[in-house]
Amino acid sequence: MYTKAQLTWLVVLRVFIGWHFAYEGWVKLLNPRWTSLPYLLDSQGAASSFFIKLTQNPALMDTVNFLNQWSLLLIGFALIIGCFSRIASIGGILLLLLYTLSHPSFIGASYLMPFEGSYLWIDKNLVECAALAVLCTFPTSHVIGLDRYMKKIMPAWVRKYKLI
Fold first, then answer.
1. Largest CB tally within 10 Å, which of 40, 94, 121, 144?
2. Which residues have C-beta within 8 Å of that of residue 115, sequence separation ≥ 6?
3. What's the rounded Cα separation, in Å, for the pair 84 and 61?
4. 126-133 contacts: CB < 8 A, separation 24 or more?
5. Distance CA 45, CA 58 (A)
6. Residue 105's closest CA among 29, 41, 44?
7. Which alpha helices (H) appear in the chain, and where do they start and end?
């Protein structure tokens, strides 16, 4: 079990990250002209050719935009309410790793879209990724969140593989 302080700060961390994800998704959904096209075209990471290739197909770009918007919103909402928070944390980690593969913060990279600060290898995406890994390890949603109730009604295989 957690101490009261540990539980409090882990829940605060979960809600803050959830808010960040949900807000980013919501803002993108509300803007009918939003697209990830400029971001992907500006890719300079190890997988830049993959990301740039995505931009060449308009139907694929629509899918990428849809998945990005709704993934952000649903991951964030799940973390805020503590429902399927382990799956949401893993989804968030994967999404942030994709962002990092597209726009790593290494020396010599200059992007059209400016970073919010000066980073050397570790940027806010990797910090948030590490925080989500902590939340996977310390599932506070089993104490404060809907997962507390969900784990009682979910099938045994869901509990066995610790999906919640």
1. 40
2. 105, 123
3. 28
4. 126/96, 126/100, 128/17, 128/20, 128/92, 128/96, 129/92, 129/93, 129/96, 129/97, 129/100, 131/13, 131/17, 132/17, 132/89, 132/90, 132/92, 132/93, 132/96, 133/89, 133/93
5. 22
6. 44
7. 4-30, 37-41, 48-54, 58-81, 85-102, 124-137, 147-153, 156-160
The set of residues, in sequence order, having a beta carbon less than 8 Å from that of 104 and lying 6+ positions away, is 44, 45, 46, 121
Tokens of 112: 């059209």
**pLDDT tens-place string over residues 27-73:** 999 999 999 999 999 998 889 999 999 999 999 999 999 999 999 99
Instruction: State yes or no: pLDDT of 110 exceeds 90.
Output: no
Q: Give the 3-state secondary structure of residue 12.
A: helix
Residue 78: both structure tokens together:
């799940």
Q: What are the structure tokens assigned to 109, written together?
A: 């990279």
Are 52 and 101 spatial neighbours (Cβ–Cβ below 8 Å)?
A: no
Structure-block tokens of residue 102: 């597209």
Q: Quick one: how far is CA 1 from the chain centroid?
A: 26
Would you state the structure tokens that stand for residue 114, as one six-digit string?
A: 């400016």
